[in-house]
Amino acid sequence: EVQLVESGGGLVQPGGSLRLSCAASGFTFDDYNMSWVRQAPGKGLECVSAISGNGGSTYYAESMKGRFTISRDNAKNTLYLQMNSLKPEDTAVYYCAADIGGYVSSNTNAYELWGQGTQVTVSS
User: Fold this and answer.
1) Of the candidates 40, 3, 36, 57, which has an alpha carbon nearest to the alpha carbon of residue 120?
2) Across the strands, what pairs with 69?
3) Which of 40, 9, 39 is nearest to 22 (CA)?
4) Residue 67: helix, strand or coil by DSSP?
5) Residues 90-123: pLDDT tens digits?
6) Contact status, residue 20 vs residue 80, Cβ threshold 8 Å
7) How many Cβ atoms from other residues are within 10 Å of residue 74's Cβ?
8) pLDDT tens across 11-46, in order?
9) Cα of 81 vs its chain's centroid, Å
10) 78-105 burial code (b ≥16 CB/10 A, e <16)
11) I want to staple 86 with a disulfide (CB 3.0 to 4.6 A). Which of 21, 39, 119, 122 is the partner?
């Protein structure tokens, strides 16, 4: 069974940090580009960051550059997102997603596999 299971979300104060994890199973993890996508209340899906199968190529949305770091451990079939300097506008449900495309993409319509999401709330 193909599964993506996110963890690590929670409530954090502005300026704080969180590390999200996504455990993958049921498919060949390093064949897939992986992404973090978020959905804020009342808004659409937004690709936060993406990483290629071998980790050699990454994408960050402009507002995340310098604050978020995506990484993956193919030996552990796990994707990570280190989030620093969090802002209230980062509040959202964060999903991990996978696609087998030939290049890293921020197009959420291209993602084939999705996790169930983890809530991140940034508030004082």
Assistant:
1) 40
2) 82
3) 9
4) coil
5) 999 999 999 998 789 899 998 999 999 999 999 9
6) yes
7) 16
8) 999 999 999 999 999 999 999 999 999 999 999 999
9) 6
10) bbbbebeebeeebbbbbbbbbbeeeebb
11) 122
Asked if 24 and 88 count as a contact pair (C-beta separation under 8 A), the reply is no
86, amino acid identity: L
User: Whole-angstrom distance between the N-terminal and C-terminal Cα of the chain?
Assistant: 39
Tokens of 99: 């696609």
* Structure token pair of residue 115: 């996790």
In the chain, the amino acid numbered 80 is Y
Q: Do 24 and 14 contact (CB within 8 A), yes or no?
A: no
Residue with tokens 């993406």: 50
The structure tokens listed for 70 are 């995506």
Q: What is the dihedral of CA 77, 34, 81, 59, to 10 degrees?
A: 140
Residue (of 122, 104, 113, 97) closest to 40 by Cα position: 122
Number of Cβ atoms within 10 Å of the Cβ of 72: 23
